[in-house]
Amino acid sequence: MKIGIVDYNMGNLASVKNAFKKIGANAEVVKxxxxxxxxxxxxxxxxxxxxxxxxxxxxxxLDKAIKxxxxxxxxxxxxxxxxQLLFETxxxxxxxxxxxxxxxxxxxxxxxxxxxxxxxxxxxNKLFNKHxxxxxxxxxxxxxxxxxxxxxxxxxxxxxxTIYGYEFVSAVNKENVFGIQPHPEKxxxxxxxxxxxxxEMGA
Length: 203
What we know:
Shape: globular
Number of domains: 1
CATH architecture: 3-Layer(aba) Sandwich
Strand order of the largest sheet: 2-1-3-4-14-13-12-9
CATH superfamily: Class I glutamine amidotransferase (GATase) domain
Radius of gyration: 16 Å
């Protein structure tokens, strides 16, 4: 099982790779678009701005390579910014086009509904999970979040929600594409369990 951690200049790669090492999985950082097809599963991590991320993905051909990878039926997991990139658009610093792998958009937290709450949403919070292979053996885990925007999409893609002033989408799935807003690599035992579940999918 070869897992590729997509490097598109958005950081956080070392901690993701280290998390896979802790669960005994073979994960490598990859930035060459031509090499993505050599992996069994892909992780799209990331911390930073949506527009900068998409610019780099488009410039390097990683956007097309990710879409070709998905067509083969292999699994992909987007984490934090990586999850947001799965959608069609984001309103972060203006309207920006995403990968469009899942129908929906990414929006800032509603200021009226989060009055009295600090934005970005930062720290530990509960993810209320639906039944999904990503959450095998977990029941509403506490995970670590850092974000100012969240996904808006059809309920049929939602496998997890979190409450911060109001309920928002924190985990999604469409066929072989998964996304999770919190950082499993920073979420101790329960986060590592999510990564282990991802590794074991389809095995």
